[in-house]
Amino acid sequence: MERTFTMVKPDGVRKSLAGEIIKRYESAGLKLIALKLVRLSQEKAEELYSIHKGKPFYNELVDFIISGPVVPMVLEGENAVNRVRDIMGATNPKEAAPGTIRGDFAEEISENIVHGADSVESANREIPVFFSEIELVD
Fold it and tell me: Mean pLDDT, to the nearest integer, of 107-118?
């Protein structure tokens, strides 16, 4: 079984979409391993998005993710990383298919409702930012 990291971003929490997003993941057969509601510190946000440091959008990304509560979670299932990414839809909501989270709920690329690890390696880096007690699997 593969584990992945995903998170409802502040805009998703503001729009009361956390329950709907969790339902979509669980309905797809993914098992919820860990979940919480938190407000990220500047330091945790910088740790989460450290791979983007130096990119033009980095400061905007960090500022947005600390602007309100988020719902980080760990999901488990066959091919979990790719399945979560398919459920989320394209990063740019204008390119996201209807029926995906971003296709149904997001309006702009900078506030696109959810974050999801893009690989097992990314998930293994992101999970401990929020859940130090979770055992990582390859």
Answer: 94
